[in-house]
Automatic annotation (TrEMBL):
Residues 419-535 form the Integral membrane bound transporter domain. This is YccS family putative transporter. It comes from Sphingobacterium ginsenosidimutans. It is found in: Membrane. It is a multi-pass membrane protein. The gene is yccS. The chain crosses the membrane at residues 41-64, 76-97, 103-120, 127-143, 149-170, 402-421, 427-444, 456-488, 494-512, 524-541. Residues 83-357 form the Integral membrane protein YccS N-terminal domain.
Length: 675
């Protein structure tokens, strides 16, 4: 039994490693390393001075981190913003480098201005953050020719985006493909956490906490999928042969999310009522098989390879459903309706999975679809006017407060650099601030720990490599591996990425500059100074989650109420379009995911011990319970013959009304307690 268990664990780890290697970030890492090194190396071999080649390489290297997954339009927009921003920032930094006090003022203004790029979305926030890192690097280069430095950085940025856009036009739906795979994998993990809710040995507060954490991740994944798909006119306009294939996948993924949310009920009551029925272990096994089936869609090649195993899993799942139905028929109390609801939900999930399966083999027309003109309402729109931007520039806006903090931190970091001119690597203070500082205390603290541990570990590995290896080609290869590892883990595990980049930096600086003791001492010392400043900055200009929590609580109550009204309207008007109900559900569940994420952030703030969590936790549990009932209602009225469920639907509607009233009242209580 031990050997079998060990083999299963090994296969699971092997599967995770292979999936990670095949992920989008792996290909991006190889592309980024190649573009960062090869063009600069080619330019150097053609006889161009080393300083020019290094400047172009730095430009390409930093530009790679401004380009998260996206479609052709996203990448073109990034290029049009990033390239001129990099030129202006690098030129001004190099120009003012010899003049200390104006440089301090420039860096303070840059900390404020480029942080506010986040107003226009995550893609532009990445450009703003990397611009601050670029300015830190330019200081480290000790430039003597400002225009030359600006042109070198700009050339490197242009080279990177040339290849990035070329890749996007050759493989336009690459990011969408990977986003869909991540979406199915995420829902599978979400469902496995749901299974824990039916296990009495696991405390409910732990399961609710886990659900809240992963719900935010799932919401972000679905938002990315909607953003990538619904802005592709060829797909939503059915102008591409595989339009129905992609739309069927997305519809299925969204419907699965809806059905998995519908498994959320009053788990305390479920555990008590089902405790003596013997159904809880059966439910857990069935949910795990459903999760395995969903996960298989994230890896189409493996799904086809193991089609026979999946077929047997489906048979086993049907047997479990029959067993649950037999248990349900024997119940006379409240356990009967609870089991009926769970069985119906699982059958609906299987129905959606069959629909997705058909899309794998046939380009079938979608029956219940949204009109082309309505897709845009499912996408978060960026700020579109000066008035909208002005409305965000106030102290109650978390991003505005964070921009003020970054201005202060960059100004202080630059001032320390002036006071310690004899030290060569003071710019690492600014680098640490730009990389580590985040609006929330928990994220800043986590990044600090990861950066310090990663830096220390990378230094030890770097010293070991320099001590044991003397071959120049081998050391250069290790430095390149460090760069590749940084790109490979930058999105998934920041601490590991820091270990790799520190390894690469230590080896590269020692080869080109020597004096390893100064390099190591300075990197560790100035990293610690930067880390300390980021923590101090939070307490000077805090961005607390409590203010956003009040707003989000009101949104959760409001959007669930709106969802309820839309369901009522559709029931009375017998409307055929699913647009309104899908949009209402999306808004309600997005608000709930943001609320859960805000709670997780608040629990890590220094002030969390003085907060009364009872009402907040009750509100969160009640909102999930209400939303699950709303989803169940929307599923019921979408059936082909809802008249048969007519009485049951109206009974459930009457039960929901007082719950919605309670949700509004608790939201007001949270609002009053935070004033």
């Amino acid at each position: 039994m031990g050997i079998v268990s060990l083999k299963k664990r090994f296969n699971r780890i092997y599967s995770l490693v292979i999936r990670f290697i095949r992920g989008e970030h792996s290909g991006d890492a190889l592309r980024n390393v190649s573009i960062s090194i090869l063009p600069s190396l080619a330019i150097y071999l053609l006889g161009v001075p080393a300083s020019t080649a290094i400047g172009i390489g730095v430009g390409s290297l930093l530009t790679t981190l401004t380009d998260p997954p996206g479609n052709r339009k996203d990448k073109l927009s990034s290029a049009l913003v990033c390239i001129p921003t990099f030129f202006v920032a690098s030129f001004l930094t190099a120009y003012l480098f010899p003049v200390h006090w104006p440089l301090v003022i420039l860096l303070g203004l840059a900390g404020f201005t480029f942080t506010l790029y986040g107003l226009f979305g995550p893609r532009y926030a990445a450009i703003g953050n990397m611009t601050l890192i670029l300015m830190s690097f330019v200081i480290g280069l000790a430039p003597k020719h400002p225009l030359a430095v600006g042109l070198q950085i700009t050339t490197g940025a242009a080279i990177y985006y040339l290849f990035s856009l070329l890749q996007a036009y050759i493989r336009p739906y690459r990011s969408l493909k990977y986003a869909m795979a991540n979406g199915f994998q995420g829902l599978s993990q979400f469902l496995l956490i749901r299974a824990q809710s039916y296990d009495p040995s696991i405390p409910l507060d732990i399961t609710y906490s886990r659900v809240g954490k992963i719900h935010g991740q799932i919401s972000e994944q679905q938002e990315q999928i909607r953003s990538l798909l619904f802005r592709e006119k060829k797909i939503i306009g059915h102008q591409w042969p595989k339009s129905n294939y992609w739309l069927s996948q997305v519809y299925g993924l969204i419907d699965l999310h809806e059905l998995i949310i519908a498994l959320d009920h009053d788990y305390d009551a479920i555990r008590k009522n089902l405790a003596d029925t013997g159904s809880l272990p059966v439910i857990r096994r069935a949910i795990k098989l459903l999760a395995l089936e969903i996960d298989s869609f994230s890896q189409p090649r493996i799904r086809f390879r193991y089609a026979q195993q999946l077929y047997y899993n489906t048979i086993k799942l049907n047997e479990l459903l029959i067993e649950l139905k037999n248990i349900q028929q024997q119940q006379t109390g409240p356990a009967g309706p609870i089991l009926r609801s769970i069985i119906t939900n699982m059958e609906s999930i299987l129905e959606v999975l069959r629909r997705i399966q058909v899309a794998f083999y046939q380009n079938q027309e979608i029956q219940d679809k949204i009109d082309t003109a309505e897709y845009q309402q499912f996408i978060n729109r960026p700020l579109g006017s000066l008035d909208e931007i002005k409305n965000k520039l106030h102290l109650k806006n978390p991003l505005f407060r964070f921009a003020l903090r970054m201005a202060l931190l960059f100004g202080v970091g630059a001032l320390i650099g002036i006071l310690f001119l004899d030290f060569k690597y003071t710019y690492w203070i600014l680098l640490t601030i730009a990389i580590v500082a985040r609006p929330a205390f928990s994220m800043t603290k986590t990044r600090n720990i990861e950066r310090i541990v990663g830096t220390f570990s990378g230094i030890l590995i770097g010293i070991s490599c320099l001590a044991f290896f003397e071959s120049l080609p081998l050391l250069l290869s290790l430095s390149a591996i460090g760069l590749f590892g940084f790109f490979l883990f930058n999105r998934s595990n920041y601490m590991v990425s820091v270990i790799f980049i520190t390894l690469g930096v230590v080896i590269a600086l020692n080869l080109f500059e020597g004096n390893i003791n100064l390099i190591l001492g300075s990197r560790m010392a100035f990293t610690l100074v930067g880390a300390f400043l980021t923590i101090a900055g939070y307490f000077l200009i805090p961005v607390r989650q409590s203010s956003s929590l009040v707003h989000l609580a009101k949104e959760v109550a409001s959007y669930n109420q709106h969802y309820f009204q839309i369901i009522n309207q559709r029931l009375s008007d017998n409307l055929q379009s699913s647009f309104d109900i899908r949009l209402a559900r999306k808004k309600a569940q997005t608000a709930m995911a943001l609320f859960s994420d805000s709670i997780n952030q608040m629990k890590k703030e220094p002030e969390h011990k003085w907060i009364d969590w009872s009402h907040i936790h009750h509100f969160q549990a009640l909102s999930y319970r209400i939303n699950s009932h709303l989803v169940g209602l929307s599923i019921s009225i979408s059936k082909k013959n809802p008249e048969a469920l007519h009485n049951d639907i109206y009974v459930r509607i009457d039960e929901l009304k007082p719950l919605l009233t309670d949700l509004d009242q608790i939201a007001e209580h949270i609002s009053g307690s935070k004033k």
